[in-house]
Amino acid sequence: MATNFVIEGLKATIDNKEILKGINLSMKGGEIHAIMGPNGTGKSTLASALMGHPKYEVTEGTVTLDGEDVLEMEVDERARAGLFLAMQYPSEITGVTNSDFLRSAINARREEGKEISLIKFIRQMEGSMKELDMNAEFAHRYLNEGFSGGEKKRNEILQMLLLEPKLVILDEIDSGLDIDALKIVANGVNKMRNEDRGFLIITHYQRLLDYITPDYVHVMMQGRIVKSGGPELAARLEAEGYDWVKEELGITDETVGQEA
Amino acid sequence: MTLQTILPLNLEALKSLSQQKNEPAWLTENRLKALELASKLELPKPEKTKIDKWDLSDYGTYQAPVKVATLDELPPLISALVEGNESDNLIVQKDSGAIFSSLSDELKAQGVIFTDLETAAREHEELVKPYLTTVVAPDEHQLTALNAAMWNGGAFLYVPKNVEVNIPVQAIFLTENAGATFAPRILVVADTNSSVTYVDNYISSGDDVRVHNGVVEIVAKAGAKVRYATVHQFGGSTTDMSYRRAITENDASIEWIIGEMNDGNTVTDTATVLKGNGSTSDAKIIAVGSGSQRLNYTTKAVHFGKDTTSQMITRAVMRESANAIINGITKIEHGATRSNGEQTEKVLMLSPKARGDANPILLIDEDDVMAGHAASVGQVNPEQVHYLMSRGITRPEAERLIIYGFLAPVVSDIPLERLQTRLQELVERKLGQ
């Protein structure tokens, strides 16, 4: 069964301030959706709320993955159900090596007694690291500690490659990446692209979409998706910016939940 | 002002006990003087821990040890700690004295002496007398005076000039009968350019209340390298009061590796006096507190020599309502030019009732030095837990990874693989996982 991911009327608050004001989005396996929009319009909040970050409270709406209620699940259950969020600011964790972390994450998906063998794990990890042009020493470094911005992003993609999720959310994966790293990350995503897997790419630049062609492009403003279209929408946003969208919709301040 | 201290034994009893054990006259004299001192000295005052309310009077009485000839006769608690050929160089003390002692022919041939301290005082006076009670002075406070007066069993390790001992020697100290005085004293003398690793374990059995009053003295002569590793895992009924000191001469080095895994109240104080030029001290302390433990750990480095270096790292995890005070003191004396002292104390608290207090102190009386400190006290970071969980890892497993990760940078730096594994196991036991 191809993946089916549906968000309906999703509202979420942070510190009692409403940031998401009713998001509707339906995705199927094999599709790539891009969510674009200026800063402060609720894009990253959407990503965090979907993953279940404790800071955000979902007040209304439903999210289902293959018919299962995502919002009822704990964070780890969401991940095991197939949700993956490549974070904008991944945590640094001293004392936990990247490889121990990755192995724990893989084994969390397996039954007790059926853990991945060390040899197989190392082979998979090293293979994926090579694809991402990551130095082998990153396996033994503490998780994200002292990694540059670009190294952290690659490490997120490495996790995506190894965990093989059904629904991938990439939150500003392109920020802080130079053009070579951007191409490597895009290759990783394109390689993972298949009929069962959906991608939700959050970005405010067009440039990532030069390497990953989306099927659908959505513009987010004021905590809602205000405009949707095909790849041509991304191209127009790149060429003309967001002002024409605001004008068309009569929006003066596109942000949401910002202090006056 | 006269101080009314009720001592656990009187001069007459101490004198006759010493004579009964055939101790040399100088040692009897030494003990009696220390006991007199004890009656005049006050208890130590560890920073921010009030020990005057602690029951530190339960020393019990001396009970002559029953020696065993072979390892098979050792209590299972002890044999569990001995693996493979570790019994070749091993001292075991149960309650008031040594019950087993061995030294391999290889080390004997190199001139190494490794025996309980009582035997050493009788048989190697020339090597014991000049050092005993010189590193941890009896007049420091009541507890060091009491140990100097009533110490029993213990261990003496002597490594001759230029001798490198390649395998660790080990000692195990067990308090089983709470009614028996348990006051081991360790003396390590590493002669010029020698090197050695000494590992010991402190364990207990039984639920009756008792006190361990322990002292460790280490003398590292010029160019000597001493590694001293100790793991304390007393049960909740034992109060542990341990004072450890090393003196380093020119270019000597001391490495402390300390696992504070007791279940009872604990005060430990580990210090290096960097006397000689170019000498170094490195201390690593791993601690886990649980239940309602009151803990006070002090590490100290005192720089006298020029170009001396000290490094002190303490990592402590506190759960339930355990309370730890962690003091780091770097003291650089006037004249100790180009010295460098660094210290780090970190506490991770796992429950709202757990307490940790890290107190880094730098006392610098010389301009031409480097010194630094870092201290932190905190709880498991919820962002980190979320990050791990977002990859499918369960909350308990995520927390476990973070807690072990907190200790890992120090544990993974321990050069003895067996000790690493043992500490890991003890940490797991104490964390109840």
TrEMBL record, chain A:
Residues 5-247 form the ABC transporter domain. Keywords: ATP-binding, Nucleotide-binding. Gene3D superfamilies: P-loop containing nucleotide triphosphate hydrolases. Pfam families: ABC_tran. InterPro entries: AAA+_ATPase, ABC_transporter-like_ATP-bd, ABC_transporter-like_CS, FeS-cluster_ATPase_SufC, P-loop_NTPase. NCBIfam families: sufC. Belongs to the ABC transporter superfamily. Ycf16 family. This is Putative ATP-dependent transporter ycf16. It comes from Paenibacillus nuruki.
Automatic annotation (TrEMBL), chain B:
It comes from the Bacteria. GO terms for biological process: iron-sulfur cluster assembly. Signal peptide: none annotated. Pfam families: SUFBD_core, SufBD_N. SUPFAM superfamilies: Stabilizer of iron transporter SufD. Residues 49-170 form the SUF system FeS cluster assembly SufBD N-terminal domain. Residues 174-406 form the SUF system FeS cluster assembly SufBD core domain. PANTHER family: FES CLUSTER ASSEMBLY PROTEIN SUF (PTHR30508), UPF0051 PROTEIN ABCI8, CHLOROPLASTIC-RELATED (PTHR30508:SF1). Belongs to the iron-sulfur cluster assembly SufBD family. This is FeS cluster assembly protein SufD. The lineage of its organism: Bacteria, Bacillati, Bacillota, Bacilli, Bacillales.
